[in-house]
Structure formats: C-alpha cells, structure tokens
Amino acid sequence: MVEMNLNRRQFLKLSGAAAATLAVVELGFNEKKAYATTKEFKIAQATVTPTICCYCGVGCGILVHTKNNTVVYTEGDPDNPINEGKLCSKGTTIRQLYTSEKRLTKPLYRAPGSSKWEEKDWDWMLDMIASRTKETRDHSFVEVEQGITVNKTEKIASLGGAALDNEETYLLSKLMRGLGVVYLEHQARI
Ligand code: SF4
C-alpha cells in the first residue's frame, strides 16, 4: 500500500479531477442518455408541425419544431409510413432551407437581355407570369393537326416539384390540360 501525504490544496485539486473523471465516465458509458437530454432541452415546449420533405419524389415525412417563430429542430417523422422516422443526409439538413444566408425571401426578376436581378413583389410577378403564359399560349395554340382536333400548345411545359401533394398536383394537371399543355411532367417520375 502506498501512503500519500496531501496538503489541503492538493486534496481539493485531486477531488475535483476525480469528480470530472467520474462525470466523463458516466457520459461515456451513457452517450444515448446525454444525447437525449440535449435534444429534449432543445425542443422543450416547441410547436411540432408535420410536413413533407421537398427535396425529392420519395416524399419522406419530417417533423418541424418551432419556437418563437424560429425553426429550432427538424427530424424524421416516425409516424410517416414512407420513411418511419428515417431521413437521408439531404433531408437531415433540411433546416438549412430556413437558416441559410443564401435563402431567397423575395421574388427576383431578370428582364430579357439584362444581367441584373431586380426585386419584385408577388402581385407584379404573378401578373407577369399570367400575361406571358396567355401570350405564349395564344400565339402557339393549334386547334387541328392532320385533320384531327388537338387543341394544344407545344410552347409551354409544366414540371411539378416534390413538394406538391396529390390535391395540388391534380389542380395543376387540370389547369395545364385546360391551357392545352401536353408536356406535363413531375419530378417524382424523372
Ligand atoms: S429525406 Fe431524402 S429521400 Fe426523403 S424525400 Fe428528402 S431527399 Fe428524398
């Protein structure tokens, strides 16, 4: 047995180191517990909103945790039958859609021949899209082709995104068919 002669100062130092070591050992042997505690703290009293990942056609379910109008955490939705709580690396980082400095918050318009983007409001932008769609459709509309009524335009195409749900896709399809658009696609099929 080795005897140790410690003064008060040395004793306190040694006790502190021992306590710190024990704490590390405790965390080391119980990583899951430490992680769960941190996560719980971050999302405590947050509002949880289920949504669908907008990145690809798989359509994984995501839970978005918000506090004070800010997205504090996102995770796979365990109740969603598509992904059962799992997310790929892209879906895992989806919070960056909200936090990124590069996120666009206003519509940008670049006039034909211009090299500059201008900020526009949504009313201006929607009117511009509607008038150009009508102009293009009216100029390119074909009623009859080789003796057959076709009522179509081949100068407009529609490409739906993964964030569209069934109902939105149905409405978009109706609108495009009504305009005579024949090039109608969806990201999930590409
Ligand atoms: S989490 Fe990944 S696989 Fe799932 S929809 Fe998003 S991008 Fe697609």
From TrEMBL:
InterPro entries: Mopterin_OxRdtase_4Fe-4S_dom (IPR006963), MopterinOxRdtase_cofactor_BS (IPR027467), TAT_signal (IPR006311), TAT_signal_bac_arc (IPR019546). The keyword Metal-binding applies. Residues 46-102 form the 4Fe-4S Mo/W bis-MGD-type domain. One of its GO terms (biological process) is anaerobic respiration. Its cofactor is [4Fe-4S] cluster; Mo-bis(molybdopterin guanine dinucleotide). One of its GO terms (cellular component) is cell envelope. It is found in: Cell envelope. PROSITE patterns: 4FE4S_MOW_BIS_MGD (PS51669), MOLYBDOPTERIN_PROK_1 (PS00551), TAT (PS51318). Pfam families: Molybdop_Fe4S4, TAT_signal. Gene3D superfamilies: 3.40.50.740, ADC-like domains (2.20.25.90). The keyword Iron-sulfur applies. One of its GO terms (molecular function) is oxidoreductase activity. Keywords: 4Fe-4S, Iron, Iron-sulfur, Metal-binding, Oxidoreductase. Belongs to the prokaryotic molybdopterin-containing oxidoreductase family. NCBIfam families: TAT_signal_seq. This is Formate dehydrogenase alpha subunit.
